[in-house]
Each structure stands twice: as C-alpha cells, then as structure tokens.
C-alpha cells in the first residue's frame, strides 16, 4: 500500500476525531469538563507537526495539522470565553 494513502487516512482519523467535541462544545457552550492543559499540549503538537510538515514539504502533515490546530484553537477560545 502507498505510504501517502496511509498518511491521508491517518490524518483524516486524527482530524475528524476532534469534530464531535468541537460540535458539542459549539452547540452547548459548556466547557467545564474540557482540560485546558490537554488543549494546550495537543494544540502545540499540531503547530509543531505543521512546522515539521513545512520543513519536510509533506503536504499531508501540513494540511491535517492546520485543520487540527484550528479546531484546538477554537476549543481554547471557547474554554477561555465560557470557562
């Protein structure tokens, strides 16, 4: 199997795994149970993976982690706004 296909599938799983949490948080505005530490660490990881993707010119890593980073940024915003 082509490694790029595996990377795309893995990236989709990682990225879309966050969608239910983002949707639930957006609809309920309830963020009490979200850990800001987890959001910060995972968001930082997405930024670092994006940088790695830029350095290695790996578009799968770049696109996936930009999407993931945006979702973590939104969760952080909601956590700050709604406590």
Write a brief structural summary.
With 83 residues, the chain is mainly alpha-helical.
Instruction: Give the strand tally.
Output: 0
What oligomeric state do these chains adopt?
Answer: single chain
Helix content percent band = over 70%
Mean pLDDT: 94
N-to-C CA distance: 45 Å
Spans with pLDDT under 50 lasting ≥5 residues? none
Q: In percent terms, what proportion of residues is strand?
A: under 5%
Q: Structural class of the secondary structure composition?
A: mainly alpha
Shape: elongated
Largest sheet: none
Helix/strand layout:
Layout: H1 3-16, H2 19-28, H3 36-56, H4 59-82
Helix pairs in contact: 1-4, 2-4, 3-4
Describe this structure in words.
The protein is mainly α and 83 residues long. It has a domain of 50 residues. It is built from four helices and no strands. Helix 3 packs antiparallel against helix 4. The protein is elongated, with a radius of gyration of 14 Å. It starts with a helix and ends with a helix.
């Amino acid at each position: 199997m082509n490694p790029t296909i595996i990377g795309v599938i893995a990236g989709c799983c990682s990225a879309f795994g966050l969608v239910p949490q983002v949707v639930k948080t957006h609809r309920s505005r309830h963020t009490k149970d979200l850990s800001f530490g987890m959001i910060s660490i995972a968001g930082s990881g997405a930024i670092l993976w994006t940088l790695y993707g830029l350095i290695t010119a790996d578009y799968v890593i770049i696109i996936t982690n930009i999407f993931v980073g945006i979702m973590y940024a939104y969760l952080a915003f909601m956590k700050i706004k709604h406590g």
